[in-house]
Amino acid sequence: MGGPLEGVKVIEFGQEIQGPFAGLLLSYMGAQVYKVERRDGGDASRRAAARWVDKLKGVSPYFLAFNRGKRSITLDLKTPEAKEVVYRLAQKADVVISNWREGVLDRLQLGYEDLKARNPRIIYAQASGFGPKGPMANRPARDVLAQAYSGLMSMTGRADDYPLPAGNLMGDESGGFNIAAAVLAALYSRERTGKGQRVSTSIYGSLIGLQTWELTQYSLTGQAVKAGRHHVFVRGPWGAFKTADGYLCLAGVGEDRWERFCRIVPGLTEDTRFATTEARTKDPDALVAFLDAVFPRRATQEWIDDLQKADILCAPVQTYHDVLRDEQARANGYIQTMEHPLLGTITVVGPSFTMSDTPLTIQGNPPELGEHTEEILQELGYSWADIERLTERGVT
Nearest 5°: phi and psi at 277? Predict the structure, then answer.
């Protein structure tokens, strides 16, 4: 059986991460994704980092990460003939995804109203930097700017540190998840009403959504404390601690587990500074300093074995090297291997959820720029003479 979106056709006007990641997620589910790219270089991520690392053989990890299993068609969207190609494609499509700046496709006469006039069932998904309304609707954004503007950066790091961004582009990628989720909801709605609709999200809005608890807490109490090496909402030791051979992470130790924790950590029971929850909460830095002195005496896995037996919530701090080889990640398909025509067998990130009856799969390699242009035009009814004429005129 194919994926849950088998037969669904998606037009992607995607650049870099937010839009292409949404397209990738729908591709995992079996949708056919038509990636519309500029003739002069295509998606900017095609060129990122590839030229400086010889072993990549010109392959961009950035483009490969977000564009597997898609079909690429190149078009100069400023030409009337290219617009006509998109109109024909939209008549057969179910979904349009874009993370171009708000209003760009409208000016090209490829906005929601333009495509809806040709296909009332079309679902038009717009991903932006700051959202479709308000004074910043048309401003360009990058992930780090949204991390700053959403408040996330102000809460990351220690109290005396500069505001720190997260170590990955979580705004862009969570935006991709949100636009894919909105598309799925709109597809379900269309099954009941027969009508498509416009849906939207943004990097900014996605990062606000990822701070639901923290922003609500501040709204009700007026208190905002940087996490640092503590967690304002979690009792007991929290975060990373150095061990003899790496780092160990604890997710808090509540009163119900404290006695068991003390039996594992030498000297903790005897230290009266930590005898009560109130005392531990009052001076959390003292507890961190104590554990910083004790945990380096043993290897990470030795601590993990004892802590897990006592039902203390903990994990090793894995590096990317560890994650790519992790048995748990591979068992669930979060990390997979695939064959690449230039690089051979490579390890990539797979879908982050599973379905029992309609499994998700990596649909194939990322396309070469314009690889499927002629094939797609033929499917839309263009003859070889038409295709040659479009090529000569610089349309495709």
Answer: -60, -40
